[in-house]
């Protein structure tokens, strides 16, 4: 990215004559016109490029996930967390799910994706749908065009991102969960957890 910035300005006669972030010709040759079915060719890093460490995907241990799940005090919160964990959907996508978006028999719900703005199916775990059904049974089914996750206090309205974030923050009292306690990181870290199936 930085290299292309300097290349752009060098092309128009601005900036330094040599690129301080040089390209790796070996990388360019290895990735140029390569079929996705062929194995990737190894290549050397260019000068001044840092090595990117390979890390394991983030995950919440099963015992900590159980402790976090038990800290949820309402079926709405449990359903939201299970849907986050089992589907990996973004918070705004999940908070916009309406009764018409849920396919109970197919164990999927439909969300409006962030990039394409199209309605796409997302799988959900059976346990997430069971808890969601218990929640909807207790509050009653909202109108077909209204989101299913609703506020518990005050006037009846859709749950906001900030309210859901606060629910998760209240449940993440252990120090280890506090580090990854936002809804954004929760969906990625929990997608490999015990409730993802």
Features:
single chain, 197 residues, mainly alpha, 3-stranded antiparallel beta sheet, 9 helices, 3 strands, 42% helix, 6% strand, elongated
Question: What report would you give on this structure?
Answer:
There is one protein chain. It is built from nine helices and three strands. It has helices at 2-11, 25-31, 62-70, 75-87, 91-95, 126-139, 161-171, 175-179, 183-190; strands spanning 102-103, 108-112, 119-123. The two termini are 38 Å apart. 42% of the residues lie in helices and 6% in strands. The chain has a three-stranded antiparallel beta sheet, with no helix packed on it. Helix 4 (75-87) packs antiparallel against helix 6 and helix 4 (75-87) crosses helix 9 (183-190).
Class from secondary-structure proportions: mainly alpha
Tell me the total number of β-strands. 3
Q: Tell me the number of helical segments per DSSP (H or I, 4 or more residues long).
A: 9
The geometry reads as elongated
**Strand order within the widest sheet?**
1-2-3
Topology:
Elements: H1 2-11, H2 25-31, H3 62-70, H4 75-87, H5 91-95, E1 102-103, E2 108-112, E3 119-123, H6 126-139, H7 161-171, H8 175-179, H9 183-190
Antiparallel strand pairs: 1-2, 2-3
Helix pairs in contact: 4-6, 4-9
Compact overview of the structure:
It is built from nine helices and three strands, in the order H-H-H-H-H-E-E-E-H-H-H-H. With 197 residues, it is mainly α.
């Amino acid at each position: 990215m930085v290299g292309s910035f300097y290349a752009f300005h060098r092309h128009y006669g601005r900036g330094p004559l040599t690129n301080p972030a040089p390209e790796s010709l070996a990388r360019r040759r290895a990735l140029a016109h390569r079929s996705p079915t062929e194995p990737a060719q190894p290549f050397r890093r260019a000068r001044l490029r840092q090595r990117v460490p390979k890390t394991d995907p983030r995950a919440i241990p099963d015992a900590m996930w159980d402790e976090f799940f038990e800290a949820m005090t309402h079926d709405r919160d449990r359903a939201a967390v299970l849907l986050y964990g089992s589907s990996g959907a973004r918070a705004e996508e999940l908070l916009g799910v309406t009764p018409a978006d849920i396919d109970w028999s197919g164990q999927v719900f439909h969300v409006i994706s962030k990039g394409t703005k199209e309605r796409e199916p997302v799988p959900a775990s059976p346990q997430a749908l069971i808890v969601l059904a218990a929640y909807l049974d207790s509050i009653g089914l909202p109108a077909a065009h209204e989101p299913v996750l609703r506020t518990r206090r005050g006037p009846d309205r859709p749950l906001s991102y900030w309210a859901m974030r606060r629910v998760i923050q209240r449940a993440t009292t252990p120090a280890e969960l506090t580090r990854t306690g936002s809804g954004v990181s929760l969906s990625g870290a929990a997608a490999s957890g015990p409730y993802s199936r």
